[in-house]
From TrEMBL:
Coiled coil: none annotated. Keywords: Metal-binding, Oxidoreductase, Zinc. GO terms for molecular function: oxidoreductase activity; zinc ion binding. Belongs to the zinc-containing alcohol dehydrogenase family. Residues 8-345 form the Enoyl reductase (ER) domain. Its cofactor is Zn(2+). InterPro entries: ADH-like_C, ADH-like_N, ADH_Zn_CS, ER, GroES-like_sf, NAD(P)-bd_dom_sf, Zn_alcohol_dh. It comes from Virgibacillus oceani. Signal peptide: none annotated. It comes from the Bacteria. Pfam families: ADH_N, ADH_zinc_N. SMART domains: PKS_ER. This is Galactitol-1-phosphate 5-dehydrogenase. The lineage of its organism: Bacteria, Bacillati, Bacillota, Bacilli, Bacillales.
Length: 350
């Protein structure tokens, strides 16, 4: 079968691979219909390399069930599904408390388990999430990143009437804009240095757009909020710069939730750091997308709001490509050769 395998830093190859087969009674084989590039895929490709050399990469996907093990009851052949790519040990202290995202051995497909950049993928039945007929495969391929966002927002006290700032309008930020509105946010401020990304943020529901390229975001935000700031600030850019600047956005006693991963050291100027102390901010980290009972309410909630149309991922998708275009596409993205939103591959097309 066709696949993309990661061999080393900036070394991803389009190659033939063995098709997965049923080994355990709870195995499910899925024909991959759409699979997306995650920001974490780009970081690992660019400077971290594979967990295991030559592993099939990728983890954000949807598809159709083509074969099941003898004990699988939650899905059947022909069902349309999304895949929860996370694996937790079930034995560590966090797992035993139901805090699955804090598992000491948490990993996803494409690490120690063959991934989804392939014509076919295999998961245990509990990792397979049925999707309704009115949710297309492109949308279902984004169930996982959406679950990442709502997992983070479940940590906050965001409620109807809240004001929210989303710093960074990449794929996660654009999903965060929509989830903030679903949670009942009165006003969502979208912040970025790219007007094109801000335009998409407006399309998916942002109320106010702030371009921070020429003037600091917090200065503009404070003018717009009469000096108050917002109830919740979401860091979704994953930049060392914004990871400091975000502390100047919340009101006194407000919250900051980190969804972006900078993969670099962060230097926080005194001005921004003092906001944490003087404003008594609550700073939250968010990791992965699972909770107990596995895979968690993040997944069922995401599927529900995709089915109602309140989560609209279509404006976020910028490229629909054949899997064989993977190596050149990864190279272009990290070298900023073109404007990329969410990139989807269709393995069955070649």
């Amino acid at each position: 079968m066709r696949s993309l395998k990661l061999y080393g830093e900036q070394d991803i190859r389009f190659e033939e691979a063995d098709k997965p087969y049923i080994e355990n009674a709870d195995d499910v084989i899925i024909k991959v219909k759409a699979v997306g590039i995650c920001g974490s895929d780009l970081s690992r490709y660019r400077k971290l390399g594979p967990y295991v050399e030559g592993t099939i990469f990728g983890h954000e996907f949807s598809g159709e069930v083509i074969e099941t093990g003898s004990e699988v009851t939650n899905v059947k052949v022909g069902d349309r599904v999304a895949g929860c790519p996370a694996f937790c040990c079930g034995k560590c202290a966090s797992c035993k408390k139901g805090e699955l995202a804090r598992c000491e051995k948490l990993h996803v497909m494409g690490a120690y388990h063959p991934g989804a950049y392939a014509e076919f993928a295999k998961l245990p039945a509990e990792n397979v999430v049925p999707i309704p007929d009115n949710v297309d495969f492109d949308t279902a391929a984004m169930v996982e990143p959406s679950a990442v966002v709502v997992h983070g927002l479940y940590h906050t006290n965001l409620h109807p009437g809240s004001e929210v700032a989303v710093m960074g309008c990449g794929n996660i930020g654009l999903l965060a804009v929509q989830w903030a509105k679903i949670f009942g946010a009165k006003t969502v401020y979208a912040i970025d240095i790219d007007d094109d990304k801000l335009a998409v943020a407006k399309e998916v529901g942002a109320d106010v757009l702030i371009n921070s390229k020429e003037r600091p975001a917090h200065e503009q935000l404070m003018e717009l909020t009469d000096g108050r700031g917002v109830d919740v600030a979401i860091e979704s850019a994953g930049s060392p710069i914004t990871s400091a600047q975000v502390f100047a956005l919340p009101k006194k006693g407000g919250q900051v939730v980190f969804m972006g991963i900078p993969y670099a050291d962060i230097t926080i100027e005194r001005f921004y750091f003092e906001k944490i102390v003087r404003n008594e901010l609550i700073v939250l980290g968010s990791w992965n997308a699972i909770s107990g009972p596995f895979p968690g309410k993040e997944w069922s909630t995401t599927v529900h709001y995709m089915s109602t149309g309140q989560l609209n991922v279509q404006p976020i998708i910028s490229h629909r490509l054949q899997l064989r275009q993977g190596p050149e596409t990864f190279h272009k993205i990290i070298n900023r050769n073109g404007a990329f939103g969410k990139v989807l591959f269709y393995p069955e097309l070649g």
